[in-house]
């Protein structure tokens, strides 16, 4: 045990040394990087805000050890998705039946049947060999608004709107040192919804001197450039909530971000619940093993 | 370990047993996901029901559709087939249970319990031999019902096993008439 | 894997079996009574942890294959099918993906432990080389496994790494096309990577058996580096080291589960949740974290061939360590200078890892170059010279003496050090 403590002390020392080296190197780098970054920005159109404004950490019901999705929020988020996003964006990995899942929006079976039937789904071929449209069933995937990516691009100024099934896990803004180490302890894995929320609420007028390319919309929260092809999708009062939740862009974007996190990680509730049980079990088991080991090694110098 | 045996033997043994038991519980809990992953997944369980248009099936004709990966035969039976099935006494049947997903599990295998309720000419059945899963050929064999070419099981015109190695009548799936010309299986 | 066996079953059936296939005796002599130095610390539990991780990866991997489809147009969606629809699919996939990272965490600790305590020195050179072969196979397996989900990072990682071979003069292009089975990374590439990703773990298991065999010839090294002299220096493997390894393993599992259940994507890349697109490269291509030090070395050299040679050289030099280190003393505990250089080297390796993830520009490149030079300097200059100039501290006469202090050895003459049956 003594050697272990000693070794740990050494490791800590080594880590701090490594960190010091890295910080030093980073320091040198950032000093040397200034002109490079400037050049980069120049190529993107002289934007003082690019590299982007990093997303702020919002509070989510599904964050942390005991995090769970808020069913009401997911249902509202679904409403925003259905009424706004789904006009352009597909979500082809999610099925209607998933909307009834526990730990998800948890609509009733009947509600899901009704919801599904509001979409037209392509099926076939029928006996005559033709494809046909029919109302959706719970087992169907969400239909895409465009038949193929080319059609989607053609209808949207040449940029196909990305699929939203995994959007909340497919965007990550560089956290940087030391945050990426702290994130390990704080279990920060909400970078996706934070980013989506930041983007949806982040549209502003371009600052003086910034010209936005035609078809572009200035948004300093966008990850890969100063502007993006998607126009601001939300406006206050656009979606009518029935539960008295404020009908603001901020609230809409929170709800739809939470919904997209669920769409990307539908088993998050089960994962965190199982994780708590497993880790608790392992700690107890480790404790028992520790005392067993102590007993066995009692009277033996080592 | 003879040296440490003198010190509190019972407490020590309890500790060893507790540790071993907790380890065994943990191992058992880990095994379950590895077994359960082989069960049908959520998409398979949610498989759509099938709707079939039966308006064009003439008397004496059958249509086969795929449901849950299996052939389901829908037959518009002739009057002779219906009466042959009705006339067979229950005592002669190898399997006296209806095996009808729409009826209680102990319903007797009368023709009325095998055919569509109130439409005795319509007959819907999972066309899979209950012996080892082959697909019996229609309108063949001693009873002009179904005959399984694999091992010679003979079924009558209500899909009931009469001769051969198969133990049970062929299964009737859950289905319902949406209209006179449309049925929904599943 | 151990010479002498005291296994002598009483059960007639076991007796009958043992006479025909003495596997009971093999297990008994290798994992029950095998004499281990009594002073092994917790850094020595990582061998057992690695064996566990190999088994865990094979078990979860075999199960994932039951649901995975190795086809360029189906692979991505089949992985999402596992995540969404398969019973416990999310758990099995996260166990496997994070298991790869945990495997590498354990193997790096294991390697650094060997470097610190001189476990590669006479008579354990072959043991070390076998370990390096395992490390190489692990890297190949890890790389090919990361390609299978067929996300953006899978695709572009595969493209970049296979293109390394194009640096080979004359035949480079031909080799790359041969590796791809086409003119770019595509379905043929995915299928061969899948096949090899399934094969290599079993090859690793084979080399692991050789590794344990080679370990059991001289027995384990220990923190003093002093060889085992007599029975008092050792304890039987069971129960002393089985319970110690088990405790170490469960602590390691807590860390593993922390990732699996609470940060399952922490060590992955967001871009890999976007399906592979051969027409668009992600803005910032980074390999998995366990390749980052080598990736930093690759990028630090401003020549394609030179970079590739240096990267492979960085691995090759590890194979030569037993012959580069000229010191007769094994453990760094008794080598005051080497100990300091060891920790500098650890810092350099971590620094290279950090730089491998940084963008290849400005000061990062300069820092990478400095650390790359130092990496090779450590192995090619410091290790050979240090043995000639360094004055080691006095070594204990035996392991028992180091544990109990001088003159105490006689007191423990009756200590349970001899292999014994329960």
From TrEMBL, chain B:
<keyword id="KW-0411">Iron-sulfur</keyword>
<dbReference type="InterPro" id="IPR019546">
    <property type="entry name" value="TAT_signal_bac_arc"/>
</dbReference>
<dbReference type="InterPro" id="IPR019470">
    <property type="entry name" value="Ubiq_cytC_Rdtase_Fe-S_su_TAT"/>
</dbReference>
<dbReference type="InterPro" id="IPR006311">
    <property type="entry name" value="TAT_signal"/>
</dbReference>
<dbReference type="Pfam" id="PF00355">
    <property type="entry name" value="Rieske"/>
</dbReference>
<keyword id="KW-1133">Transmembrane helix</keyword>
<dbReference type="InterPro" id="IPR006317">
    <property type="entry name" value="Ubiquinol_cyt_c_Rdtase_Fe-S-su"/>
</dbReference>
<dbReference type="InterPro" id="IPR014349">
    <property type="entry name" value="Rieske_Fe-S_prot"/>
</dbReference>
<comment type="similarity">
    <text>Belongs to the Rieske iron-sulfur protein family.</text>
</comment>
<dbReference type="InterPro" id="IPR017941">
    <property type="entry name" value="Rieske_2Fe-2S"/>
</dbReference>
<feature type="transmembrane region" description="Helical">
    <location>
        <begin position="14"/>
        <end position="35"/>
    </location>
</feature>
<keyword id="KW-0472">Membrane</keyword>
<feature type="domain" description="Rieske">
    <location>
        <begin position="85"/>
        <end position="184"/>
    </location>
</feature>
<keyword id="KW-0813">Transport</keyword>
<keyword id="KW-0001">2Fe-2S</keyword>
<comment type="function">
    <text>Component of the ubiquinol-cytochrome c reductase complex (complex III or cytochrome b-c1 complex), which is a respiratory chain that generates an electrochemical potential coupled to ATP synthesis.</text>
</comment>
<dbReference type="Pfam" id="PF10399">
    <property type="entry name" value="UCR_Fe-S_N"/>
</dbReference>
<keyword id="KW-0249">Electron transport</keyword>
<dbReference type="InterPro" id="IPR005805">
    <property type="entry name" value="Rieske_Fe-S_prot_C"/>
</dbReference>
<comment type="subunit">
    <text>The main subunits of complex b-c1 are: cytochrome b, cytochrome c1 and the Rieske protein.</text>
</comment>
<keyword id="KW-0812">Transmembrane</keyword>
<keyword id="KW-1015">Disulfide bond</keyword>
UniProtKB/TrEMBL annotation, chain C:
<dbReference type="Pfam" id="PF00033">
    <property type="entry name" value="Cytochrome_B"/>
</dbReference>
<keyword id="KW-0812">Transmembrane</keyword>
<dbReference type="InterPro" id="IPR016174">
    <property type="entry name" value="Di-haem_cyt_TM"/>
</dbReference>
<dbReference type="InterPro" id="IPR036150">
    <property type="entry name" value="Cyt_b/b6_C_sf"/>
</dbReference>
<feature type="transmembrane region" description="Helical">
    <location>
        <begin position="90"/>
        <end position="111"/>
    </location>
</feature>
<dbReference type="InterPro" id="IPR048260">
    <property type="entry name" value="Cytochrome_b_C_euk/bac"/>
</dbReference>
<dbReference type="InterPro" id="IPR027387">
    <property type="entry name" value="Cytb/b6-like_sf"/>
</dbReference>
<keyword id="KW-0408">Iron</keyword>
<dbReference type="InterPro" id="IPR005798">
    <property type="entry name" value="Cyt_b/b6_C"/>
</dbReference>
<feature type="transmembrane region" description="Helical">
    <location>
        <begin position="126"/>
        <end position="148"/>
    </location>
</feature>
<keyword id="KW-0813">Transport</keyword>
<dbReference type="InterPro" id="IPR005797">
    <property type="entry name" value="Cyt_b/b6_N"/>
</dbReference>
<feature type="transmembrane region" description="Helical">
    <location>
        <begin position="246"/>
        <end position="263"/>
    </location>
</feature>
<comment type="function">
    <text>Component of the ubiquinol-cytochrome c reductase complex (complex III or cytochrome b-c1 complex), which is a respiratory chain that generates an electrochemical potential coupled to ATP synthesis.</text>
</comment>
<keyword id="KW-0249">Electron transport</keyword>
<dbReference type="InterPro" id="IPR048259">
    <property type="entry name" value="Cytochrome_b_N_euk/bac"/>
</dbReference>
<keyword id="KW-1133">Transmembrane helix</keyword>
<keyword id="KW-0679">Respiratory chain</keyword>
<feature type="transmembrane region" description="Helical">
    <location>
        <begin position="366"/>
        <end position="389"/>
    </location>
</feature>
<feature type="domain" description="Cytochrome b/b6 N-terminal region profile">
    <location>
        <begin position="13"/>
        <end position="224"/>
    </location>
</feature>
<dbReference type="InterPro" id="IPR030689">
    <property type="entry name" value="Cytochrome_b"/>
</dbReference>
<dbReference type="Pfam" id="PF00032">
    <property type="entry name" value="Cytochrom_B_C"/>
</dbReference>
